[in-house]
Amino acid sequence: MASSQNNQDTVHPSSDPSIYHEYESKWSTLPSDSTGWIQRAKDVAAVLAPDAAAREKANRTPRAEVALLKHSGLLKILGPKEYGGGEQPWSVAYQAIREVAKGDGSIGMLLGYHLLWAFSSSILGTPSQITKWTALITSQNLFVGGAVNPRDSDLVITTDPNDSANIIFNGSKHFTTGAAVSDLIVLEGSLSSSSFPESGGEHIFAYVPTTDPGITFSFNWDAIGLRLTESGSAQISNFVVSWEDALGWDASTKQPLPDVLGVPFATLLLPTIQLVFTNFYLGIALAALDLAAAYTRKSTRPWPYLSGGERETVAPAEKATDEFYILSTYGTHHAHLLAATALVDRANERISGLFAAYAGNHTRDNRGEVTALQRGEISELIAAAKIVVTDVGLKVTSDVFEVTGSRATASKVGLDRFWRDLRTHTLHDPIAYKRREVGRWVLLGEIPTPTWYT
Prior knowledge:
Layout: H1 2-11, H2 22-26, H3 34-48, H4 52-58, H5 63-72, H6 90-103, H7 105-124, H8 127-139, E1 144-147, E2 155-159, E3 166-173, E4 184-191, E5 203-209, E6 215-217, E7 234-242, E8 249-250, E9 255-256, H9 258-261, H10 269-298, H11 324-358, H12 372-399, H13 416-425, H14 431-444
Parallel strand pairs: 1-4, 2-4
Antiparallel strand pairs: 2-3, 3-7, 4-5, 6-7, 8-9
Helix pairs in contact: 3-5, 3-6, 6-7, 6-10, 6-11, 7-8, 7-10, 10-11, 10-12, 10-13, 11-12, 12-13, 12-14
Domain Acyl-CoA dehydrogenase C-terminal: 276-428
Domain Acyl-CoA dehydrogenase/oxidase N-terminal: 44-137
Protein name: Acyl-CoA dehydrogenase NM domain-like protein
């Protein structure tokens, strides 16, 4: 870790975790129900929103913001109560992501990625691995990042020449959202054909400690939006991992367990994170309209000229809030966001119900009972929600300038960050492919073949 920390110091500084120290005691007690958890997320957003534009402009590594998430307890919202967690369903976690994103899109994204990676053992792991990692992450309030960008070449996994009980990861990742400010990282790689000639290039996911010298971060994230997600690149060099920590693998036979990784349930990691995206997109869009409305009420001026000349029978509006086109625009976008929210909430409830039934506290592991059709139907619902939110969100975050006026483009207002945040992440995977997937479902009844983005 020393090499990574030194590298950071030479590139750009981090934010100071002590600025949020007061919230460690203020939020020392976890909420007791879903209403309390959503309120806690709103409280976090209220802390982040006032200086979100300034913090984004400073573009510091978000160590303070991660500390705030830890103080809030939101990192443990899904964790079992027996380990000190909130034991809330995914539907509540998704709403929490959305609420935090209203205050700061970057931090909503970090929370969402953490929850996905923290939950990965429940999707990919053996029962003993689920217990191990869920207990550790929840009880220690750990923040989890990932180095799993599938558009890069896979990390290469070879045997450890010094210990057959271990494997070694090598390679690099262009995007590693949240990893540099994490406690644990999810690595993913494929078995080398030279070391494992009969492996067929199977993939392995594993949790690893961020402090290990085998990973070095570049701290080179400098996109136009979501600037506080620390999503830059990393180099993984001779990172040693025990076979015991290969999620869903048998450490003794060194083979993937077919009843864990060979079932449709194991591919739910992808629609789960697609819905993470959709919820923080929605939070960003909702916040953009709210901030624009507040600006319009306070600062936007009405247009003093009419185009009808002497034939015009209507006088110019006295206030911006009387302008018909301003009222019409706000009304339209509010209606569309209400519809988008209803669709997203429906998707949240559907996948949450699936996890409650198959990944909860059961006396037996029934994840293998989830069918390809169940998985496919949820994937298509999530794809539809993402299509709608992407379209509405980009429209809203652009149109807010039409109803606030030229002075609202001032940097101090910060309205531009909403569009930049959405535009940055909606390019994560082409929405055109989501439209095609849904189209094939509607016309042909075809569920998509699971991929890294489906």
